[in-house]
Design a protein that fits this description.
- The complex is a heterodimer of chains A (268) and B (475).
- Chain A has a domain of 125 residues.
- Chain A has 4 helices and no strands.
- Chain B contains 33 helices and no strands.
- Among the domains of chain B are: 130 residues, Leucine-rich Repeat Variant, CATH 1.25.10.10; 93 residues, no CATH class.
- Classes of the chains: A mainly alpha (268), B mainly alpha (475).
- Chains A and B meet through helix 2 of A and helix 2, helix 5, helix 8, helix 11 and helix 19 of B.
């Protein structure tokens, strides 16, 4: 009996205990559930985080390797380009030096050629000299021409005078004006008179006497400045008789022959 | 009776005689009128005022050639005095009648008509334009081809009078084909004709470069140089004027002239003649030198500078001296070699003297200052610059100092010469305001020399030394 009582007590105790514990457990169920959830979620989170960090690390490794790869490729390219540029700079600098020297040479030789300029100056001086000489020659020629023209004019004037003044020829009896006995030799006019054959004067109309229409007036200078010599026949309106040739008479011819023989005698 | 009454009386008497029946009376009346108008301009004005001109113009269109000549003579005598009288002649229809006369056969009539047209055209551009509008120019060019020398002369002189006013008139003359005919006439023997031909060509050439080139193309140049030795001085002057007008335009024309040996000929010409005849030659040398430095060197080598120095010393007139000074400036302004050539001819002191001389005209002073300045800016020949240190005013002096300060730092021989010739001493004596350009140059020069030398030459140094002597205590 005592055992049974203890058993019943134990049973009751058991029942109370069980009831008490299940009550407790029931009360803690929520809390414990929550705690378990928390622990599990935390643990799962840790797992995930570990997984993620693992993934991250691997991804970083991959990216690192890839970036290194591309960067090295780029650097290689940049090095190539820099090398190329360096070479080009060098070439250009050398080319500039060549061009400088060439341009200097070319300019000095052709464009601003010193020797060409010097020879040009010398050429100008020579040309000046030659032009001077030519001009002097031409000047002399013209002077000679003018002088010869003048001489011819003077000579024709003298011959004309001789024609007109033929009566001044000296005769056997009477020496003429130009053959004065005090002279050693006769004057040149005398010689001309002897050579020239007498011609009857045409009716000469000097320019200064008659104006147009035959009305006498003072010298009309204003109209034409033509150089007419006064002994040439004027073709203006002026009346003149045409000259008849001199009558060839025997006496006259004898006189002329005597005059010429006389001059020949005198000259001997 | 007063002068005016006499004149009026004479005109009143002559006027009915102009309309007389007998042609001889008409002609003599016209001749008398012409001679009266020719002698004085008050008589010419009286002719215009008494309204005789329309009758005269009527007689110009008459048939008798002597009458035409006399009437043209009257028109010329009236027109030559002043532009107003020429305008009166134009208003009466004189120009058209004269152009009709130009187409006649008789050379005397043509000559009188051409001379009258020349007198009308001479005064100003509008009158010349009237003459050109009446169609005178082609007929005048035909007159150049006529055999009579007087007609050629008058035609050339009329063309010259027409062209001289404006480029359009010159173009009108050139379009009528005047230049080849004028160029052919250069070779003639007649002196007065050559004068007029060259004057006409220079009036054409002076307006523009294209006209000058047209004149040059015809080949005027080598032929014109033979006329530089012509005995007549006005022919030579007109040739030189033509050369000057051509050279003024462009560098290529100057080159052409120089290559034909023109420089030597012109320099000889300058040596032969004197007075105002030299002026075109001097200006021609200046224009040639102004285009480029090689041409200026050509002028120097042809002994142009020495000839210009002779001209400068011989000529008394201020305007010729001004032209000479300008030419010298043009020659010397290009490079140091040119400036040296000018300086060696001893021209710089002369230019300075002309600038400082109170009796020279303002134009001469201005030109000599400009020439001196432009030559000094290039001159590096120090012995030539030293005389200028002594007399020059400060404006010129600063340029001289500038040149010294440029040359002295680099050339030791020049420094030695500068000191021994007394230049450094003179520089110390110059008073200049501190901060002015002159003082800067003086400082630059002083810095080229050691300090002792500068102190030695500074004024009053002997007094400073004596003072030191007095204060000195022998130990």
């Amino acid at each position: 009996m005592a055992g049974l009582l203890t058993l019943e007590q134990k049973l009751q105790h058991f029942r109370k205990e069980y009831f008490y514990r299940s009550n407790q457990a029931e009360e803690n169920r929520k809390r414990e559930n929550q705690a378990a959830t928390l622990i599990q979620s935390w643990f799962r989170g840790c797992l995930e985080r570990a997984y993620l960090s693992h993934l991250h690390k691997k991804a970083i490794i991959i990216q690192k390797i890839w970036r290194g790869f591309t960067a090295r490729a780029r650097v290689r390219q940049m090095v190539k380009a820099a090398y190329f540029i360096m070479k080009m700079n060098f070439y250009e600098e050398m080319a500039v030096r060549i061009q400088q020297r060439w341009r200097g040479f070319f300019a000095r030789k052709h464009i601003h050629s010193f020797y060409a300029r010097k020879s040009y100056m010398e050429g100008i001086l020579k040309k000046n000299e030659s032009v001077r000489n030519e001009l002097d020659e031409i000047c002399d020629l013209q002077k000679k021409e003018r002088e010869s023209l003048k001489m011819i004019q003077e000579q024709t004037a003298k011959v004309y005078q001789a024609h007109r003044l033929h009566y001044l020829l000296s005769t056997e009896q009477c020496p003429g004006v130009f053959n004065s006995p005090f002279r050693q030799a006769p004057h040149e006019m005398e010689l001309l008179l002897r050579q020239v054959k007498h011609s009857a004067p045409n009716r000469m109309v000097p320019k200064s006497r008659v104006s147009f229409l035959g009305i006498p007036g003072p010298a009309a200078h204003g109209f034409s400045a033509t150089t007419e010599s006064p002994w040439m026949k004027s073709t203006r309106i002026c009346s003149f008789r045409p000259a008849l040739p001199p009558i060839a008479s025997k006496n006259y011819q004898v006189m002329v022959v005597k005059a010429t023989t006389k001059s020949l005698d005198l000259e001997d | 009776m007063s002068q005016r009454q006499i004149i009026q009386g004479v005109m009143a008497l002559l006027r009915p005689l102009l309309l007389d029946v007998v042609p001889g009376v008409q002609q003599t009346a016209a001749l008398a009128l012409g001679r009266l108008a020719d002698s004085s301009d008050s008589l010419a004005e009286a002719v215009v005022k008494e309204n005789i001109l329309p009758d005269v113009v009527q007689s110009v269109t008459s048939h008798n050639r002597f009458h035409k000549k006399a009437a043209a003579f009257v028109l010329r005598a009236v027109a030559k005095h002043s532009p107003e009288l020429s305008q009166a002649v134009v208003d009466c229809g004189g120009v058209d009648a004269l152009v009709q006369c130009l187409m006649e056969f008789d050379p005397g009539v043509k000559e009188a008509a051409a001379w009258a047209l020349g007198c009308v055209a001479r005064h100003n551009a509008t009158l010349s334009q009237t003459v050109v509008n009446a169609g005178a120019v082609p007929v005048l060019v035909l007159c150049l081809l006529e055999p009579e020398m007087a007609l050629k002369r008058i035609a050339a002189s009329t063309l010259s009078d027409i062209c001289k006013h404006t480029p359009e008139l010159a173009h009108a003359v050139v379009d009528a084909g005047a230049i080849p005919h004028l160029a052919q006439l250069i070779l003639s023997r007649d002196t007065k004709l050559k004068r007029q031909v060259f004057s006409a060509l220079s009036q054409i050439a002076k307006h523009s470069a294209s006209l000058s080139e047209m004149v040059a193309e015809v080949g005027v140049f080598p032929a014109a140089m033979t006329c530089l030795k012509d005995p007549d001085e006005y022919v030579r002057k007109n040739v030189t004027t033509l050369m000057r007008e051509m050279v003024k335009q462009t560098a290529e024309l100057s080159q052409l002239v120089v290559n034909c040996g023109g420089l030597g000929a012109v320099i000889d010409y300058l040596g032969d003649c004197s007075g105002s005849l030299r002026l075109p030659g001097i200006m021609m040398l200046g224009y040639v030198a102004s285009h480029s430095e090689s041409l200026a060197m050509a002028v120097i080598l042809s002994k142009g500078v020495s000839q210009l120095a002779v001209c400068l010393s011989e000529e008394p007139e201020d305007h010729i001296k001004a032209a000479t000074v300008w030419s010298i400036g043009q020659i010397g302004q290009h490079t140091p070699d040119h400036a040296k050539a000018v300086a060696m001819a001893n021209l710089l002191p002369k230019l300075l003297k002309l600038y400082m001389d109170a009796s020279s005209s303002e134009d001469l002073q201005a030109k000599s200052k400009k020439a001196l300045k432009s030559i000094l800016q290039k001159c590096t020949h120090l012995p030539a610059l030293e005389p200028l240190l002594y007399d020059a005013p400060s404006k010129i002096l600063k340029h001289v100092m500038c040149q010294f300060s440029k040359v002295l730092p680099h050339d030791s021989k020049a420094r030695r010469l500068f000191v021994t010739s007394g230049g450094l001493k003179k520089v110390q004596e110059i008073q200049a305001e501190p901060g002015s350009v002159l003082q800067e140059h003086i400082n630059a020069i002083n810095s080229c020399f050691p300090e002792e030398i500068v102190r030695y030459y500074s004024p009053g140094y002997s007094e400073v030394l004596l003072e030191r002597l007095e204060n000195y205590q022998p130990a």
